[in-house]
Design a protein that fits this description.
With 76 residues, this protein is an alpha+beta fold. It has one helix at 10-31; strands spanning 34-36, 43-45, 55-56, 59-60, 65-67, 73-75. It has a two-stranded antiparallel sheet.
Length: 76
Amino acid sequence: MIEPKKKHSIARKRTRHSAWQTLTIKKLVKKAALSICQNCGATKLNHRVCLSCGFYAGKQILTIKTKSNKGNVIDA
């Protein structure tokens, strides 16, 4: 059996994994049925956190930061 000549670094492995993960999520958005967020009404993937407000199942999971007209960062 052929053995690899050098070990792949952890960073290389993780970047490959993250790139593959983002591609699969993009493919899911195109194919899967979208649902409406209970909190803000935006469309989102099923069984995932809403990217516009950060809520999942009635609980706030993420704090989403948005920019106002003046350029100040405001927590949404």
